[in-house]
Specification:
The chain has 159 residues and is α+β, with helices and mostly antiparallel strands. It contains 3 helices and 4 strands. It has a 4-stranded mixed beta sheet with strand order 1-2-3-4, with helices on one face. β3 and β4 (150-155) form a beta hairpin. The longest helix is centred in the N-terminal third of the chain and has 58 residues, at 11-68. 21% of the residues are buried.
Length: 159
């Protein structure tokens, strides 16, 4: 008489597979969470550095425009080019909350008038005017996750 061939898996084989998957998940999940945390902190730092570089370059552009006579300080024309609202639109890539804007790790626009440690938004404020020679833009990196608050000032007289 022929013996029937066994088909399928035994209970012990299935339990071993489940145990292996559980061990892999236990190792992979914390590594993935660390990866996401580091990526979000890097994104906030990149936005902070990008804002400082962008504002410095924009001020150089305004200085060149004033030197060539294409921009004037009278009437605040040069100041309108680099006021806080104009900088936020330029840095975000569009009007506030517009589709396609640069995004903070926590959602929403990456650059706002005030920084947010919850969302990871970089704060941009402007004081003074170019016409008076007192213009200064302040960029604030929030204390997001393991990052500490940092501030950088881009001063018109230092460009």
């Amino acid at each position: 008489m022929k013996q029937a061939m066994q088909k399928g898996f035994t209970l012990i084989e299935l339990m071993i597979v489940v145990a292996i998957i559980g061990i892999l998940a236990a190792v992979a999940l914390p590594a993935y969470q660390d990866y996401i945390k580091n990526a979000n902190m890097a994104k906030v730092q990149t936005h902070f550095d990008e804002a400082a570089r962008f504002i410095e370059n924009d001020l150089r552009r305004v200085q060149a425009g004033i030197a060539m006579g294409t921009l004037v300080t009278a009437g605040g024309v040069a100041d309108a080019e680099v006021n806080a609202a104009a900088l936020l639109v330029k840095l975000n890539g569009g009007a506030p909350a517009a589709a396609g804007n640069a995004l903070a790790p926590g959602g929403g626009d990456a650059y706002l008038a005030a920084s947010s440690a919850t969302l990871g938004t970089v704060g941009i404020t402007v004081a003074g005017t170019i016409a008076a020679g007192t213009y200064a833009a302040t960029i604030v990196r929030p204390a997001y996750l393991d990052l500490v608050t940092a501030t950088q000032i881009v001063d018109w007289t230092q460009i």
